[in-house]
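Structure ticket #2291
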Amino acid sequence: MLISCTYCEFLVACNVMHQIKGAFLIPYLLILLLMGTPLYFLEASLGQFTGKSFKEVWSYCPLIQGMALCYQILLIPSVCYYVMMVSWTVYYFYQSFHSPLPWSTCGNEWNTQYCFSGQADHTEGLATTNMTNLLNMTVMNMSNMSFPLNSSHPDAVQRQSAEEEFWHNHVLNISSGLADIGSLKANMVLCLAITWFFIYLCVIKGIRTSGKVVYVTATLPYLLLSVLLINNFTLPGSLDGIVFFLKPNFESLLKIQVWLEAAIQVFYSLALGWGGTIITLSSYNSFNNNCLRDAFILSIAGEGSSIFGGFVIFSALGFTANKANVPVNEVVKSGPGLGFVAYPMAVAQMPLPNLWAVLFFLAMITVGLDSMFALVEVIYAYFENSFQLMKKRQIISRAGLTCLAFLLGIPFCTQGGIYMFQLLDWYCAAFAPLFCAMVECISISWVYGAERFSRDIEMMLGKRVPAYIRVFWCFLAPVLLLTLMVTSLLAYVPPKYGKYVYPRWAVQLGWMYATLPLVPIFTVAVTVVYHSPGKTLWQKLRRSVEPTADWHPAVDKGDYIPLPLETSGTIAHRVLSNLGFRNKSVVV
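Resolution: structure written out below.
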């Protein structure tokens, strides 16, 4: 079963949708169908045909064997800090059993004098008023001149909701910046340990255990979110949030940044070019499994999860906006904490708030664990394929790797951990996933040959690859991916968290992290060319891109020989041959 990074996708997609304000769904769906699904099919068929993980699958083109190490370098830190999102959710789940909900009130030890609560007739802080008055209040200066709450006037007092203060001052206990790491938060270390313990239990015996657990973790969230959505629709103003979510902003569609955000989100959520996740998980499929059908179903289902989650979040935001008498886009700030501020704020205003809080965060925990199973399984499989002793002692070796991953995640449990989280999140998808996907497309389409690969797929599925998918692999994908890389570099802005601007040294570390996964691709390529047989550089290069004896189907095909690569004739003839205009009577 193929699993995308659904949990990260859910929270990040809601944040992007909130920022772009109604202009996200159209480019999101177009890019999914035109780019996401064909690339998903490419990676899925690559893993299924060979039955090998991303460590060993590159034998069709030895020149790019460095992709394996590249993916591992990309995956390990990503998983270590993504687990923190699940850990925060575990903490919110625990706090959901307290009444009243701790994030719904002021007057707690973590609250400031500027805190306001959405609870009606609740009195704390400097002022006593309800949510509507607070969000629209004006603060009087000493000259009796009034100005709005969000004014830039130097004497303005910035109020903060109880939910935001709970998130920043209690859950994060945030420090002044990256240079001020602060102390460890014991409660978050405990939540991180609990999260990794459950992940270990579910991957303890590899795909055999995680494949069974996923039947629960992949279905339970939809049931819980459906219950939440039905409840949200009974609340006043929920439809306003849905309209905000669905109504397109056609002016924004003319901005390249909107399309860039949508494309990156598709890559992010489907795990395309992202650590070989799809390749490794597809290797567990039966050889004749219809991976073309799966590519369409799973990519649409994965993105549908984001959209379905968007209905839940934005219907709640609409209710909160209606109660506060403000526009939906002004209810809460965007950022990594959107899912930990927006929905808790809405839950606090609902009847039986503890019940809905427990259901929501339980759904998020199951979605989060579901996503982590897939990513962790891929990482562990790489080490076990590299060291046979680890494969023989799987339970012990996986326990050791889990403990190591837990230790690597501890820095994110400090007061300055959110700054490290934001920095890594800012640069993890900046360049490497797009570059890796482009390398995959070019190496399959033009080095190994789209026609050769199509014959291999035909051996599995009994039918040819659709023409539009070949056209995409050969032409559209490389052009679009290159365009996205160039555009993302041109549109680059330094990272920030709220009003905090990262120092220059942090930005430099971020770029090092963004480009580090690419280093093995080039270093291994040079090594492969150097050791390839041949007298001249051209001869060595030609031999370095020829499939090795390890390239063969997963089933017993002792007489398998890859279709010869078309090298004769004109360029046009070779292009047409690569796109499938061939003699159908030829048999592999």
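Closing remark: Strands lie at 115-116, 138-140, 146-148, 160-161, 496-497, 500-501.
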